[in-house]
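User: I'm putting together notes for a lab meeting next week and I want to include a structural view of one of the chains we've been expressing. I don't have a solved structure, so I'd like a prediction I can at least talk through. The sequence is below, exactly as it appears in our construct file.
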Amino acid sequence: MSSQPPSDSGSDSRSESRSDSTAERRSDNKSEQIAAEIRDAIRLGTLQRGTLYSSRELGERFGASRTPVREALLKLADLGLVRIERNRGARVLGPDGRGVVELCSLRVLLEPPACRSAAAVMTARDDAELAAQLAIMAEHPDAGPEYFAADEKLHDVILRAAGNLRLAKFVGELRQTLALDGRLSVPEYQSVETALQDHTDIVEALRRRDGVAAERAMRKHIVRSGELLVANSSEDSWGLVAEWRRWVGIAGTTGEYPVG
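Assistant: Thanks for the context. Below is the predicted structure for the 260-residue chain, given as structure tokens.
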């Protein structure tokens, strides 16, 4: 009587685990793609503020099944762009004054220390990329699309250099959400020259590998921009500015307010 070869249950288990992990990554990528497309549709006005959309309707519009659509809506709800209404769908909101405070507060809490961390591990390639993006910004003093694309890329390079890819992705989403309503401090509330000098100070500190100076320069930049965005986010912004400054104080930036 021939014996059966032993089963490789451990190998089978590992194979199933890899398959599950791959499927999970695909699902995450799909939901992130749908979230980006919905965010763009809100920005362009093809999805109207105040309107309720069902998961089925959004799935048909963006060519996706309900599961990645629901996951995308949960991501956007965390950013304050939609409100989930049980058994009905999601209502498009967009960031209001309080949302601007929350988004800017997260940036001032997260980006400066990440910038300091990046200074310790920056490479020559990172330096070259930052210099290239800074040059693009300087070449577009009209603050057009090229300027803002380079601005976004510059911040992304710093955050990714710090080694925390989740943080880089999260902050990127915060910046894109703030930009939905054209909530950009340049050039409406501050000059391109001022913003460009802020970015130059950040890049120069990183090039010297001076983490403390890099953190300080990033904090100064975000506090300046955040203050202007919050102050102009609503007609009655006094309370919002007070809340914003409380978060700035928690972030260790007391005394760095650009306005009185």
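A couple of points you could mention at the meeting. Strands lie at 52-53, 82-85, 89-92. The longest strand covers residues 82-85.

User: Perfect, that's what I needed.
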